[in-house]
Structure formats: structure tokens, C-alpha cells
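Running this now, will post back.
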Amino acid sequence: MRDRPNAHLLLIEDDAATRTAIAANLGGHGYRVEEADTAGEGLRAWDAARPDLILLDLGLPDRDGLSVVRAVRHDATTPILVVSARGEERDRVAALDQGADDYLTKPFGLIELRARIAALLRRAAGPAADPEGHLQVGLVSLDVARREVRVGDVLVDLTPREYELLKVLLSRAGTLVTRARLLRAVWGTSYAEEAHYLHVYVSRLRRKLAAADPTGQVAGLVVAEPGVGYRVREADPA
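Update: finished.
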């Protein structure tokens, strides 16, 4: 029986049998799993698609997995769950100190793995989310576990970048988010000066949300602060 999640996971694991078993199990429970067997391949996949969570082995053939943790943390807060045969306390502490969010020592049970993934995804929505990892402002709701956005009951089809952009803004509803911060969170530090990316993607996002709302209530949800950034207006009190 499939679970409800539809979150996009990136599994970086060089052992083919382990990678296949984990990917098959998670895929059978509703997750979309992208696989990589080296640190370099994993970082390219992460930068291209910005998955919701990274599952990371430390013993990779091209470089240590801690380099992946450092690279991701330089650009984003993507949850990282280390799954490693290194069970010594110093290894766990090193991974967590570098920015990993959780650590699971091999061998582990797949039920525990799924429970830890679900917990990290819920927390990734930020303090504005409810305990299930849902963000809502007015008619617009975002479900982190399912990676779904709805306007009322209407499902909105967003690209990965549009989704990430909306998630950052909804998680800070009522707060101005600078262009530089949005660019770093969604595209990475190499795009920190590419403000035109935001103009294009925010315009697309606004159009898609508005098209799903015949009442016009979401018009003006995402507000530009010229030269500074964007904010999501908080819902008016009932």
C-alpha cells in the first residue's frame, strides 16, 4: 500500500544493491527517488532539481560524503539524512557538525528510515507549518510531504523551481524576503546577482495561482518590494 508522500528524494549511495533496495522501498511508499552513485553526480543532480531531501552515504568513491554536506549547506537548507556504515560517535558528530540533519547507521530498518524522512520533511516546512508540514495562506496551501500546491481544492502544477520559490515565500508570510536570499535558496550562490530569474519565475507563479482561482482572491498574494525582494501577504483576519 502506498503512503501519501510524493516528495522528491535524492539518494546518493555507491553500493548498487543497497541503493536499489532503498529506492524500490521508498518508491513503493509514494516517494519519487532520484539515484546517484558518486558525490559529483549527486551534487549535479541536487543543483539541477533541488530535491526535498537528500539521503547520503559517506563512503563515496570520488570523495567523502561530508563534502556533499558542506556544498549543499553553502547554498541551501535542504534536509540531509546521512545513511552510513560509519557508526562511531565521532563520525556522527562530524556529519551533524557539518550540517547534516540526522544520521542513521547501517544496517537499519526501512520503517525507521521512512519515519525519519517523514519527520525531516515536516520540519523542513519551517515554523509556520502545522505539525503535518502544511503551509497555508488564505486559499493557497502547500503540502511538503506530497509536494503539492493547491488553491482551494484546485491542484496547481508548478515546476520544481516555482515550487521552491513559493515554499520559501509562504514559510515567511508577511515578511520581506530579499532577492539575494531567494536566489540563494532556490538557485544557489552562483545566481545571487541574477535578479531577472526572480522576475520571470515570480510572474509565472502568479499566473498559475491566479488561473486556479476564478474568485480572484489570490491576486496580489505575492507582492514585490521594488529593488529589494518579495513578500507573501498574510491572509486577512476572518
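The mean pLDDT is 87. More later if anyone needs it.
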